[in-house]
Amino acid sequence: xxxxxxxxxxxxxxxxxxxxxxxxxxxxxxxxxxxxxxxxxxxxxxxxxxxxxxxxxxxxxxxxxxxxxxxxxxxxxxxxxxxxxxxxxxxxxxxxxxxxxxxxxxxxxxxxxxxxxxxxxxxxxxxxxxxxxxxxxxxxxxxxxxxxxxxxxxxxxxxxxxxxxxxxxxxxxxxxxxxxxxxxxxxxxxxxxxxxxxxxxxxxxxxxxxxxxxxxxxxxxxxxxxxxxxxxxxxxxxxxxxxxxxxxxxxxxxxxxxxxxxxxxxxxxxxxxxxxxxxxxxxxxxx
Length: 287
Hints:
Blueprint: H1 9-41, E1 53-57, E2 61-63, E3 67-75, E4 89-97, E5 105-107, E6 110-112, E7 119-124, E8 130-142, E9 145-158, E10 161-169, E11 178-184, E12 187-194, E13 202-209, E14 217-224, E15 232-234, E16 240-247, H2 255-281
Parallel strand pairs: 2-9
Antiparallel strand pairs: 1-3, 3-7, 4-6, 4-8, 5-7, 8-9, 10-13, 10-15, 11-12, 11-14, 14-16
């Protein structure tokens, strides 16, 4: 047999301690480190490069039973990285409020905004003249981060000025669709889309001009057909048409005149009473 040298007890205790430490380190390597690696591999929340901002743009005045498109756009918040790249969702929720919302709506009422392009939503209005408010909530979301803002946009629904035109095709061929420009007092205020006209067809076109008000006095709508080369005329055979209308001014304020009249009347009464009282105080002569 081969004799083994005696191991010092202190060395034996040190060896046991090292073995235990290695076992514990192995356990941490097998359990704890994968968790740390997973946390390292998980995407970090993107810091907001700027606050959430947005806007609504479109017409501020609409005619009764009218419709118009409004651009809803926004940016910023958690949905955007610090370099401006969109990394999350930017969502909008739209609604319309007013005293009478019959026939009033906006479509789409919710959606996703991407790459700063915005979303075009159509609002339709009813037959009541009133003031409506479009309210839009913008939510910028990335991971668990969510920041929202609210936007408002006021639209006035009014009784419009109406222009009616009668057009006549003077050719035997079909005339393709075209557009007429409408001027008010020499400045363009809108267009009329005319569909294709068949040979000798008569077509009635209508233009509605919505405004919060015109100055008192005379105003004129003018429409020209000079670009149609005589293939279409108005009902009177002319290539241009104008319609003049009158906008009355505010009614006169007679308050000052009423006040002046009342003062004059009271003054006359005062003079009359004073003279009568003076006559009554005159003493009679003694005989």
